[in-house]
Specification:
This protein is of the alpha/beta class. The protein contains 3 helices and 3 strands. The protein has a single domain, classed as Barstar-like (Barnase, Chain D, 2-Layer Sandwich), CATH 3.30.370.
Length: about 100
């Protein structure tokens, strides 16, 4: 019989919160650098928005991802994250922009 992880409700993965500040990110390459630095991405991560969608839907069921200052990269990123959150119970994604 397997033992549960201490402090974790049986059958429920621990919620993980990732805050990603994208201030100054103006290119897809820099976006994916920031994602790779902040998220536990698999080694085969494809460094594109389709690959991000796959990661979020496969692994993100207990994640809260907060993007700050998305600015120039927000449009496509918001759409991918909204689709993934709609498809994945337990995935929470939000965007906070500078006032």
């Amino acid at each position: 019989m397997k033992k549960g992880v201490p402090g974790r409700a049986k059958g429920r993965p621990e919620r993980r919160v990732f805050t990603i500040d994208l201030a100054g990110v103006r290119s897809a390459a820099k976006l994916h650098d920031a994602l790779a630095a902040a998220l536990p991405l698999p080694a085969h991560y494809g460094r594109n928005l389709d690959a991000l969608h796959d990661v979020l839907t496969e692994f993100g069921g207990s994640w809260t991802v907060v993007f700050r200052n998305a600015g120039a990269v927000a449009r496509g990123l918001r759409a991918v994250c909204a689709d993934a959150a709609e498809e994945t119970p337990g995935l929470h994604v939000s965007f906070e922009d500078r006032s």
